[in-house]
Write a structure and sequence with these properties.
It is a single chain. The protein has two domains: 46 residues, no CATH class; 155 residues, no CATH class. Helix content is 63%, strand content 17%. Strand 1 and strand 2 form a beta hairpin. Helix 1 packs antiparallel against helix 2 and helix 5 packs antiparallel against helix 6. The radius of gyration is 25 Å and the shape is elongated. It starts with 7 loop residues before the first helix and ends with a helix. Keywords: Membrane, Transmembrane, Transmembrane helix.
Length: 210
């Protein structure tokens, strides 16, 4: 087997999957080729890691700005209620959600303390829309893609439409629930950042600045 013509990715794939007991000669040749091309492999792996980190950080920045934009959306809702009905409960809810999104988005953007934790919580709260008949809850930022059941399977998407509703009572409509795939996606982005250690680096920087 001539491994000299293999790309770096092909070499590493072979190394991870070869049965060295069944193919001892090929294994020796493969290990020798990997050793001979070690500098090339290290450069390629470093480049792949940097590209992945860059891509992930850009997605986190997007999530940060989406939360800040959601803050603006609920601030507008707050202003509409203030000018219109002046319902105290609506003012409190919209005001709290606006501040929460603003703080979470800003802290995540700056990689400062609690930025990840607040953003985690923000996305977790948006995952489920549920109606039990006596309780209804939904919360979305600027966009969502719901998959759920209300008598039958449904798909529902919205863009640029902040929403928060929490009701209790009798006969609140069709029983059902939905799962927001957008919120789940952003949770996976945050998790990938933790695995990369980006949040740990942020906390380390904070401690150094004290």
């Amino acid at each position: 087997m001539d491994y000299s013509k293999y790309s770096v990715n092909e070499l590493m794939d072979c190394l991870n999957n070869i049965d060295k007991d069944a193919h001892p000669e090929n294994y020796k040749k493969l290990v020798l080729e990997v050793e001979n091309r070690k500098p090339e492999i290290e450069v390629a792996q470093k480049q792949d890691q940097e590209e992945f980190t860059f891509s992930t950080e850009n997605r986190v920045k997007l999530l940060s700005w989406l939360q800040i934009a959601t803050c603006v959306g609920f601030t507008i809702a707050f202003a509409d209620v203030l000018i219109g009905s002046m319902e105290l409960l609506d003012l409190i809810v919209y005001g709290v959600i606006a501040v929460f999104n603003g703080v979470a988005g800003y802290k995540l953007l700056k990689r400062s303390r609690y930025g990840y934790e607040l953003s985690y919580l923000n996305q977790i709260l948006q995952i489920l829309t549920i109606n039990t008949g006596t309780l209804f809850f939904t919360y979305t930022g600027l966009g969502s893609f719901l998959v759920g059941i209300e008598g039958e399977l449904f798909f529902r998407a919205n863009i640029l439409s902040t929403d928060f509703r929490f009701y209790t009572g009798e006969n609140l409509g069709q029983l059902g629930f939905g799962v927001d795939l957008v919120a789940i996606f952003f949770l996976s982005v945050l998790h990938s950042c933790r695995e990369l250690g980006l949040d740990a680096k942020a906390n380390k920087q904070i401690n150094q600045d004290k």
